[in-house]
Each structure stands twice: as structure tokens, then as C-alpha cells.
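Entry for the shared binder. Reason: the reviewer on the internal report wants the predicted structure included alongside the sequence.
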Amino acid sequence: MRAVMMAGGAGTRLRPLTCDLPKPMVPILNRPIAEHIICLLRRHGFTEIIAALHYLPDLMQDYFRDGSSFGVQMTYAIEESHPLGTAGCVRNVAQLLRETFLVISGDSVTNFDLGAAVQFHRRQGCQATLVLTRVPNPLDFGIVITDQDHRVCRFLEKPSPGEVFSDTVNTGIYILEPEVLSHLPPNAESDFSHDLFPLLLSKDIPVYGYIAEGYWCDIGHLDAYRQAQYDCLYGKMQLDLNYVNSRGGVWIGHNTHIDPTARIQPPAFIGDNCRIGPGVEIEAGTILGDNVSVGAGADLKRPILWNGVVVGEEAQLCGCIIGRGARVDRRSQVLEGAVVGSLSTVGEEAQVVPGVRVWPSKKIEAGAILTINLIWGHTAQRNLFGQRGVSGLANIDITPEFAVKLGAAYGSTLKRQAQVTVSRDQRSISRMVSRSFIAGLMSVGVNVLNLEATAIPIARSVLPSLAVAGGIHVRVHPERSDHILIEVLDPQGINISKHQERKIEGAYFKEDFRRAQIHEIGNVVTVSQAVDLYSACFERYLNEEAICRSSSKIVIDYVYAVSGAILPRLLAKFGCDAVVLNASLGHTAATSADRESLLNQLGHVVEALKATFGVQVSANGEQLILVDESGMPIRGEMLTALMAEMVLTHHPRGTIVVPVQTSSAVEQIVRRHDGRVIRTKANPTALMETCHNNPSVVLGGSAEMGFIFPQFHPGFDAMFCIAKLIEMLTLQERSLGQICADLPRVYHRTYVARCPWAAKGALMRSLLESYPPEDLELVDGVKICNRQHDSWVLILPDGGDSLVHIVANGNDRGWVEETLREYRLIVQRFVDRSQEGEVFAPHLIE
């Protein structure tokens, strides 16, 4: 039988190891990954192998040649100009595939029974079978859900945390019939998971999933690479090795000399032609390539050394990776998680601190302490973007150096001479970060319209009129006062999509930025008319007559986060009296305790002044808490319900958009007004996109995130919300207190439970398998509905931490309390048992 092995691209998340080496040639126990795959294929009867190559193809061709030395026949298909994608490269060799064939990724290690998978495929009589497996943390993989007959019914490539409905993932191994390739265009880029399989499902062509047992590791990043090495060394997967296991778990190659005074703990792996000096300590988990020399007294604790590495006397290597031909000199240290690229040198008594990466052919001077990557910035992360933009500790994670690099990465995804806006809040730290970001944009030839200190609703609203490619807003994080939040906006003012985030992350981690020549460096122009543009739109979308006749008195608390607020000036045009509190810039952002104290103060002021209502504005103008005429705060689910009631009274039969976890009071209110509710994923981008793409939407958001009036602009805007409240209260002739008294009474409770990342996928799958499909909603997380009681419970994985949110909602307080308690126990028991390696299924709650 024939197999197609896809060699993949440059492996940017494995850099610096893959700067001069394609991923399939990266060694696992001293043999390339591709060699282990070829041995697996040969064992299962695949003796004709087509290797689809693009990145550094000569290295693979020179190593395997015609394949005869490995017991197979090798053919090579080289993508000369640009990569064609996983499916496109196979479509390109369709003339060589006349019968059932297998496709396998060249950057994974596995011992699956491929013969059994082929037999399954033939029994099903289908065009395509996906080989699947179960993994603890499926976030980096394509999730596949099959029915009881193993037919694929849902396919989700690299899901967000809330979309983790299963821990069954696509391994990149497919068994296909030749005719399946006819669905793909020739000589065009296409992907199995993004293009072909969704197309087959849309045409109702059966695609099946075979869940394979055994070991599988997708070597997509450095942590996975280390783990695969250790797993193979510790026997979790057996490889064909031409080495002698001479010391009960210590594999030693040919012509290797080990000094009698050296101490080696099994398991350990030492290649051919190595020299281990006197007094060397080699701990369990150490892997040495061929031709490695280790000087006297060196201490090796689980390092992975490639071929030709030289380790000096008394050097210390701990949990690191040292590339081909690199040199670690006397008494130097390379510590946990660090990577030293091929042909680099770590000088005497130098230190490479944990997690730092050194690109190939670099030199670290003697005695130096390297605390950042040798090329650009600091420790690499797996992802930059969280639930809403890029965030981190101010001036620790989010530094000027980081912002320059992120600006260059973002700018590199845009066209030369593109224009973007940059705005910020009024904090000094935000000014510093935004200026550094601007420098990064300019360095790659992007022009900047600098809005300077501007509230984010204003920054979002003016983007379409400025005709820019996007925007950046920098502010103190709304929920963590010691963090900075950087949000990247699309031309409509909406946070960019996950796909665009991944492009920026790719440019950032690759550290391969477009460099502008001197005459191409970007320009910076300060834009002063942003407030005027916003004010004009602000007035256009309000009922001026209603607000003017209201003679409202509003008390606004800015919580020491704004200086020179514009809302009082806007309201003054309509004859409203705005009493402003705490509108100066504090030295530090207010804590939650500070905000509570100021909210209590606000209530007293509203009551004393007999004001129409009070409002506490936060999150740089995005979020608010109301205070009614009697001084009582309105927030949380009550605030969301109040906004829905007021807007739908104003716009009957309109559509409301809320996040998935919002109380069912919204549905009850919508039924009153013959309207419609759309629930979205629990992130700001999903809310903004849904509001923007549905013309019937009259309100979006929640108290937690803020409120969107999409006719005005698609972002959260507390300022416009306040003006709209004045308008609606006047037209409806009601007070906030009267409206709150008429809202539905729904019990809604939330609990946050600890759940390791590795257990989230399995937990979601267990929930899916334990309840009938008609009782489940999978907008984000898993919502289990009790139709009889008009109640539900939502299990929602957190997007940034090892947590899950349990939300119980219903009309009966007892049911909500009991359900929340039981699901807390379900999650806790699942986490405990999953950590012990047991399988646990939740129980259905009646």
C-alpha cells in the first residue's frame, strides 16, 4: 500500500531547533521523527511512501534517498513556490494514488495499529476515515465528535476553551479513497480540516472516525518535543533502536567510552562515538546524541543533547535542549526549559536562565547571564492573546521591548504603508506602552494615526470614518489594576478574530519581521478630531427633544480613572445637569474595595440631590453600574435585565444579544415584547461580531462586559448608554426603581471551580456523553437544560486560567442551590479521579 507523509512547514513553535532543519528531521532518541514514521509504516505494510516537501527539502532527500536502506520505496513531491496546505499537497500527487492510501503527518510520534485502522475503513466502505485519539488537553488540536456508529458529526479545528466539547482529537492520520481528492481544486492551497472534511460533511458524504489506542504525540512545540523524548526513553512507546541496553535501562551506542567513575542513573540514552569524562553525573531522563563529548565533573540532569555537542568540565545542564554541534563551555549553566540552537557557544561560567532560547550560530560571552532570547525579546509563550486581547503585568510582562516586538508583529501582517490608529487611557504606563507599540509599527512601514488619550468607545466608533486597516488600544486592565491590556481592533472597531490573532502570534514567535528601508519607515500623525466625530454621531442617534425636556440630573462617578471627561459636556448640550465625582487621575487604579466604597458614596449623593439616577463608569468608558433614585445599586444580572426591558419597550420585536451565561430573565422579557434573543460565546469579540452582523439587533452585551447599541457603533459604550437611559426614562415615564420592581425574578448563581487544563476536554466529553443531545446546548461550554423546570446549568471552561465556571439558573431557588452544589461535587470528583487516572462519568440531575 501507499502512504503520503506530509513534511509540514518551518515549525516556528519549535524554533530555534527548526531554523535550519525541517520538523520531520528533528531527532527523537537520535533518529529523525520521519524515520520512526517510516518504520511504523513499513511494519503495517506501507512500503511505497510519497513525501510531500516544502521547507528545506534537500535535507530529507539526502537522508532517505530512494528509501531502500529503510526497507521502503521513497518518492518526493516538492512544493516549489508556496505551500499548498495539508490537502493541497496530496491533491498535487493524485496521479500516483490509484487505490486506498494513507496520509500521515511527518511531525508526530505514534505506535497506532495502522492496519486495524485500514480494516475499519474498509468495513465502513467510506471515502474518508480520520484516525482519532483522546488527549488530556485538546486545545491545540482539532476536536472530532462522532455518533454511535463512528460517523463524524462535528469537526472543530483548534477550539477556544469554551468550545472544548470532547477530548477526542484529529491525529492528522487519514485513510482515503482516491476519488475524495476530486473535491479539491488542483494547484491550490487547501487543508484537510479546514476545507475538505467540512466540505464532505456539508455534502452529507460519510466521514468516519477510528479511535486508535496507543501512544501519540504531536510535536508542535518545544514542550511536546521534550515530552515525546522522555516518553520514548521511559518506555511509553517502543521504537526501533540500534543501541544496546547494557545497564538495565541505559542504552549505549557503538564505540562509546564512559569513564569508570562516571555515574549514570537509568533510564538514559547515550549515542555512538560518545566520550563521558571522569566524575560525570548523568541523571535519569538524560539523552545524548552521537559524537557527544562530556568533560570531567559535568552534571547532566535530564538534558537532551543533539549530535556533536561538546560539554565542558563542571558544566551544569538541567532539563534543557542543546542543538547540533553546539558548545557549552567549562562551568557554564543551561537551565530548565532553555534551548541553545545548533552551532552556538555558551562561554565559560555563563548562564542561560530557564526558558530562554538562543538561535543557531550565536555566541554567549564568558560570564554573561542571558535572561532574554538572544534575538529580540524574552521568554516565548505558547499564546499571546487571551479572552480579550493581550494582557500581562505592567512593566514586567508588558514592557517597552515587548510592545515594540508586538507592534512589529502586528504591522507585519498588514500591507506596507497601511494606516492604523493607536489610542490609550490616561495612565503613564499606557502612554509608555503605546509609544513603544508605535515604534514597532513604524519599523515595518506602517503609518500611525495617534488618537493619544481617548476612551475606547470613542476609539472604536471613529475607525470606520478614518478608513484604516485597524486599531490598537492600550489601557489598564478593567479587572486587574496591576495589568495592562492591549486590544487589537479591526476596521469596524471590533476586536480582531481568532484567525487574525493567530497570524499575529505566528509573526511574533517566528521573530521574522518585515524591515522597512529608511524611506519606508512609517509616519505618525496626531488626530485631534476624534472627539468631534464621536460627538456628532452621539447626537445623531439620540432623541434630542426627549432628553432636553427631561431636565435630568445625573451623578457620574469616574472612580479616579479619568481626567477631563467629555460626557458631562455632551449631556450639557441637551440641557442635562451632570454632577461629576472623582474625575481626577489617581496615582494607582482603584481596587475593588475602593470601587465598593465609592459606589456607596454615590448612592448617598444621588439620594441627597434627588437625582434621576447615578452611574459609576469604569473600564475606560465601557462598563457601568447604575444607582436608582433611592440610592440602591443596580448591577449584575439585574442590570442586564433592566437594559433589555427598557430597550425592548422602546423597540418592540427587536433582537437582544447576550453572552451564554446570562440569566433566563432575558428570555422572559423578550417574550413580553415579542422579541428575540441570541446567545453568544462568553467573550467580547463574539458579542460585537454578532451585533454587527445582525441588522435587527437593538442591544447587545451584559453588565459584566458593557452594552452595545449597534446602530451607533459595534463596541461597548457606557457614555452612550447613559444618554440613552435618559431618553428612554423620559419617553417611558418610569423611574429605574419602578422598572426594577417589574423585572422577572430568576435565581442565578455562579461558582468557580479549579480544573487543570489537562482535564477540561475530558470533563466536557463526559458531560456530552452523559446527557441526551436534546437536553444540551453547545454555544460555549456545555449547557444542560431542564425543560420541565425552565432551568439550566452551564459548565463553562475558563479561557485564561485552569478553572471552570458553573452557572445554575432557574425559577426555583432550591433547585438552583441544589444543582450548583451537585455540579460542584461532580467537577471536583472528576478532577480528583482524572488526576488519579480513573474514568468518571457525571450523573444526570433530575
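Summary line for the report: Residues 376-382, 838-846 have pLDDT under 50 and may be disordered.
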